[in-house]
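tool=predict chain=A
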Amino acid sequence: MTRVAFLACHLSGSGHLARTLALARGVAAAGAQALVISGGRALPHLGAGGVALAQLPPVAVAGFDYARLLTAAGAPADAAFMAASRRARSASESCGRSTLMVSFSSFAVSAKGGV
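tool=predict ok
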């Protein structure tokens, strides 16, 4: 069976996660196994709709300050937080998926100086 993982990094809203969940539901409807990995705030009102949803330690931004990532508590995401988040992401990504699809904001990439 084809297994597809989707990584959504929604920093300031719900759009990336909503679109990623829609894509994952389409992949699941076509017979594949879909997993959505969320790197932003938990948004339970969207509903996973039958696909697996893994929540990483969430990060967000205040307004449009994409150079300053914040934890769920509103504190700056320091090096220790980001290291823990990378370990959680690695564990989620190592689940044996055939394909990894990534959805993130180009504003976040340009604010941090690249990927």
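The radius of gyration is 14 Å. Confidence is low (pLDDT under 50) at residues 106-115.
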